[in-house]
Amino acid sequence: MFPNPLWKSLRRGAGACAESDPSRRLSRGRQNPSSGKAAQTASFRTAAAASALVLLAGAALPAQAVAGTQSPGSPSGTYSPSKAGSPSGAHSLRAPVTDENFYFVMADRFSNGNTANDDGGLGPDPMVSGFDPQRKGFYNGGDLNGLLDKIDYIQGLGTTSIWLTPSFKNKAVQPEDNSAGYHGYWVTDFTQIDPHLGTNAELKALIDEAHSRGMKVYFDIITNHTADVIGYKEGARTGYVSKDKEPYRTAAGDVFDDRDHAGQADFPELDAEQSFPYTPVLDEAEKNLKVPAWLNDPTLYHNRGDTTFTGENSYYGDFFGLDDLFTEHPKVVDGMKDVYQTWIRDFGVDGFRIDTMKHVNDEFWQEFGPDVLSYAKEQGKDEFFMFGEVFDTSKSFTSQFTTRNSMQAVLDFPFQDASRNFASRSQDARQLEAFFAGDDWYTDADSNVYQLPTFLGNHDMGRIGSFISSDNPDANDAERVARDELAHELMYFSRGNPVVYYGDEQGFTGPGGDQDARQTLFASKVPEYLDDNLLGTDATHGTDNFNTGHPLYGKISELAQLTKDHPALRDGAHQHRYAADGPGIYAFSRTDAKDQREYVVALNNSEQPRTATVPTYIAKRNYSLVYGDAAAESKTSADGKLTVTVPPLSAVVYQSSGRIPKAKAAPAVSLQAPVSAAASATSQGDNGRMQVTADVGGTSFYEVTFEAKKAGGQWEPIGTDDTAPYRVFHDVAGLNPGATVEYRAVALDNAGHTSVSSARAATVPAPVLTIQQPEEGSTVQRNVEVVATADPEKASHVVGFERSVAGGPWTAVREGDDSSPAYTVTDDLAPLNLADGTEVRYRATTAGPGFNVVSGVRTVLVGAAPQPESVTVAGSLNTEMGCPEDWQPACESAFMTLDPVSRTWNLTADLPAGQYEFKAAINGSWDENYGQDGAPNGPNIQLNHDGGPVTFRYDHTTHVITAES
Q: What are the backbone angles phi and psi of residue 273, rounded to the nearest 5°?
């Protein structure tokens, strides 16, 4: 049987995540042998697979026998692996959660229902309590009682699910950040509601009231970090130390790679003094601060310093000092499962949004997701739903979490990007065609794209109103509102579960993301918020903004009601129909597999009316307008084309007057040759998956189920697609390179006929190696760090490196590296005495049974790096250096001086005691700058200074800037 995707969670640690863009990502996990965990999750996942595929025996459409193509059906209505010659057609999966309308709200910024809890019981000092209603980075006073008081307002939007930002007890203030934990991401107690927001009893009252109204409540949860409590003996908020430089060590001092033990019970014992590159220390007053108590064990954290959000450190590093949990450790996995299962059992929480999912190893999700979901179902939560934050716009990457990693869904960041480009920027409508065509990346046997929550903006990146204002600086308010409504129309009418970010319904804007996108709906005292220009209103943030008469509130309510009245617009098959060449109309149809009525949705992102001829399923049939400003009726032509005219920056929806005619015979179906889905010139890809495509003859409504079989096995379902082109991306990362897999497709028409393709065989591809550094064409001296990644990543990989000098033969560079997720070697060129300008080439190699792989070549030149005209220590310390303001890259008082001998830039400044942040700015501007660990545009570097002289040094070869006092 296949380890992925239908039985993907039957193995603990079965899947490995392959980064589709090696320059930005690394694999999070490694392929591990199955463990005893399989038996615990098998019954749950088998049940999930059964509900995922509805056979014809249980379908509303009767099967009509066609010679050689009748679907036999299963008496129980469940999907069983097919025997040769007897495959079963199936309907595309619609999980319980494909028709929700989410309202995403930050409790502190919604409504203040109880002023008595504003300071959380910590007193009047804002630097202790965190409460300061005049500062956007502090608690402003909203709470759970405020949500309960305004629940009519929330429900009036058509909301079916309230999604709360993290509401657990936080560290009220982190002085290093000069900010408070109002947002909920600095948790110290995972068992208690933050006192600034209310009590556990008040949360239960909110959930009970929501449930009485037929609404759900979702928690935003965190699994990979806590508040910043742990310090390091070597210094606070230090730079990241890689596993290649300082590997983990057991309590006995033996070197080990945690990825070899992730998701398994045999994790080595660790010691705080012995095991980590930094020595964790706790303030005496905070040694028992965290709840549950296991969180106070410093050996359950990565302890490697601050992340720069790239490469290996994006999985192991601290987020701006936040304590990063050792999620590879089984104690952490079990502890987090217990925490969140308690909230399900005791409070009836209906689902979780999971923070920073892509920064956690695969094995964690492969156990956490199935186990928590199984537990929720045992508590009677049959529609319990989890979705993760994977901040990335590549579907080949984001989809790995729902296919390889056993999770139900992820937030649709690619949709957010596509919707902004269409509605706000009026980009080419064909971009939406390409975008929706990529939905097949999410299709597997127990999940698909219809489950994904879609959104237009959020608390991190900013609001849709902000994007529209910045993208259209010369537009008047009417145009900006129209574009905002168009974005919501696209979100509500296309596949997925729409998410409204609180305040968007009142036209909130703001100059950016994070704190600038977290305005209060109640009257604000924050000066920066009072300057905002809201869309669709003359109101400001100086007053309450719960206006149900606001045009955007009314539009969102209308869209929610329309999709409730016409459910095919929520979870019907989403079929591309038409895309203009340039700005103009994008059209698609939505069709319920059972009802078989077609809805045609046409959206126009141009500033002029547009007309298009849109293909449909039905010829010579009337279509009636159900939404928008257009002709009340339109009739399709003899070839099934529907002519629609759409006003500028608007949408229209038509419904067919009858159902799609039933097919008289099963369509012909054939498979194209399966190919690796590896990266190409046009796709970031995933070499751990096979693209399997079926061609179906005919133009009616079809659903195609794909099956796979490995040598000696049975046919197993790997996903059903209900929109052309019919494809799946089968996860084969758990199979050995060179293994043979057979595929076939079963086409189901709308009359119940099925047809079966001939089988086609494919070979699992060998891994792909990619050199990540050094940069192509860069200049190098002395030690050269060469880094490579493998796609897909596996525990068995050993990667070697070779060097060629001046076109000469390839020679090995030291021994191979078997650590992950980055394979690294440091090549010392000094003994070679190479002249400046000498060309040196590097490549990576790996081998295994049946394969021998060589990466592409990376070429560098020996010599000194060209120096910039100037380097500035730019940061919050510039005024102390004599600059008129902080963060001034052109301030000469902060310019460094080049030492021609060491070829480093230096500056010594006398600074008062304090906490500072800085970066290296090149040539007097921010166009080129380097932060922590020399990362381009990287995080600010922290400096905790006791007072006195500080010497800054910058190396333009490594781009690393340091400070020594």
A: -85, -20
Contacts of 863 (CB under 8 A, 6+ apart): 779, 780, 781, 836, 837
For the stretch 783-828, pLDDT in tens is: 899 999 999 988 789 999 999 999 999 999 988 898 888 899 999 9
**Cβ 627 vs Cβ 566: under 8 Å:** no
Provide the 10 A C-beta neighbour count for residue 158: 20
Task: Spell out, as residue ranges, where the chain has pLDDT lower than 70.
Answer: 1-86
Contact (CB, 8 A) for 891 and 878:
yes
Q: What is the DSSP string of 631-668?
A: -SEEE--TT-EEEEEE-TTEEEEEEEEEEPPPPSSPPP
Q: How far is CA 887 from CA 879, 940, 951, in A?
A: 9, 11, 18
Is 355 an annotated catalytic residue?
yes
Quick one: pLDDT at residue 41? 34
Residue indicated by tokens 């720069």: 308
Residue 523 neighbours by CB under 8 Å, 6+ apart: 541, 542, 543, 544
Query: Cβ distance 748 to 717 under 8 Å?
Result: no
Handedness of CA 535, 541, 545, 547 (dihedral sign): negative
| Token pair recorded at residue 319 | 């987020």
Q: Are strands 800-805 and 779-780 parallel, antiparallel or unpaired?
A: unpaired
Nearest 5°: the CA angle 559, 563, 565 is: 115
Cα separations (Å) of 165 from 159, 168, 187?
A: 16, 9, 12
**Tokens at 915, concatenated:** 């906490």
Q: What is the pLDDT, as a whole number, of residue 37?
A: 32
What DSSP character marks residue 307? -
Q: What is the pTM of this model?
A: 0.87
The overall average pLDDT reported for the chain is: 90
Burial state string for 675-690 with b = 16 or more CB within 10 A and e = fewer than 16? ebbbbeeebbbbbbbb
Q: How far is CA 438 from the centre of its chain?
A: 16
Cβ contact 646:628 at 8 Å: yes
Query: Contact at 8 Å (CB) between 478 and 81?
Result: no
From 389, 504, 703, 791, active-site residue? 389
Cis peptide before 792 (omega within 30 of 0): yes
Coil, helix or strand for 364? helix
Cα three-residue angle 575-578-582, rounded to 5 degrees: 135
Residue 639 vs residues 186, 617, 636, 642, 877: alpha-carbon distances, Å: 60, 9, 8, 9, 70
Q: Which of 228, 312, 323, 355 is catalytic?
A: 355
**Which pLDDT tens digit goes with each residue over 299-310?**
999 999 998 888
- Burial class, 764, CB count within 10 angstroms (exposed 0-12 / middle 13-18 / buried 19+): buried
Q: Go through the chain and tell me how many residues it has.
A: 965
